[in-house]
Design goal:
The complex is a heterodimer.
Chain A lengths: L2 H7 L3 E4 L10 E4 L3 H5 L6 E5 L4 H10 L3 E4 L7 H10 L2 E4 L4 H10 L10
Parallel strand pairs in A: 2-3, 3-4, 4-5
Antiparallel strand pairs in A: 1-5
Chain B lengths: L7 E7 L9 H12 L4 H20 L4 E7 L3 E8 L7 H4 L9 H5 L7 H8 L2 E7 L3 E9 L2
Classes of the chains: A alpha/beta, B alpha+beta.
């Protein structure tokens, strides 16, 4: 699924990283604990989180995650958006809560999961 | 930086209690590995393992120092702090065990996955810790 399709599906707003809108995403990870995200290995991953912290961007950077969706209408401050821009990471924001966001993606075929170990 | 035998050394200071800056050392190392043309898979392993160790140094260790040595065989990351030390290392290695405060949890850490993740992504993990003196974590990622 392309990032722009995800954006439409989640009725999300683009906060940073227009350059990745045509990127293909294979699987998603929904988590508020960044170490749980880092235990998850797969390429072309979308990260959904309700955590608003610069460490979300850092975690994505280390994991080569290029797209982050802040759920539940969370509003990341400018320093977080700036850090994402600097790292070439796309930031989306949706009003939908985590469960609904994941459910919408899953029901549209994004069923790829990560690999533990 | 680059030595005549092809070995590259880098050193970073990790500031205490600064969760905004936490990860900058790992980010710099990741950039360097990418510039050296190391395979993305290995870069990711080294970056995640170091990032977890860096976060630990910030939140538990009162800051510290990261020394990185890259030679033809491996990436070696040594992170040292002079924090409280780990009383029971075996317990600390268990997934889910955490001594982190609520404040740290609010930052998205303290899930008890830091040390297990370091082990998961390194080829060799050597931890020395002494209560009251500090902790050193050596992460080795082999090229072959």
């Amino acid at each position: 699924m392309k990032v722009r399709e995800i954006m439409k599906l989640l009725e999300a707003e683009l906060l940073a990283g227009e350059e990745n809108l045509d990127m293909e995403i294979n699987s998603a990870c929904g988590a508020d604990l960044m170490s749980d995200v880092m235990a998850f290995v797969k390429d072309h991953v979308l990260l959904l989180t309700g955590l608003v912290s610069p460490q979300v961007i850092r975690t994505a950077e280390m994991m080569d995650i290029k797209v982050i969706v802040f759920v539940r209408g969370k509003n990341p401050p400018q320093n977080i958006i700036d850090l994402a821009k600097e790292k070439g990471i796309t930031v989306l924001r949706t009003k939908h809560p985590m469960f609904i966001s994941c459910g919408k993606l899953y029901s549209q075929g994004m069923i790829g999961r990560g690999v533990w170990d | 930086m680059g030595l005549s035998d092809g070995t590259i050394k880098m050193s970073f200071t990790i500031l205490p209690d600064d969760l905004t800056a936490a990860g900058e050392a790992s980010s710099s190392m990741k950039k360097m590995l990418n510039q050296l043309g190391v395979s993305p898979q290995l870069v990711k392993k080294a970056a995640i393992a170091m990032y977890e160790a860096e976060i630990n140094a910030v939140i538990h260790g009162g800051g510290g120092i990261a020394d990185i040595i890259i030679d033809g065989q491996k990436i070696e990351i040594l992170i040292r702090d002079e924090g409280p030390g780990i009383p029971d290392l075996e317990l600390a290695m268990q997934e889910g065990y955490s001594t982190a405060s609520d404040e740290i949890r609010e930052m998205g850490f303290g899930a008890g996955m830091g040390l297990p993740n370091m082990k998961r992504y390194s080829d060799e993990l050597i931890i020395h810790s002494e209560v009251g003196k500090g902790t050193s974590v050596k992460i080795i990622v082999n090229f072959y």
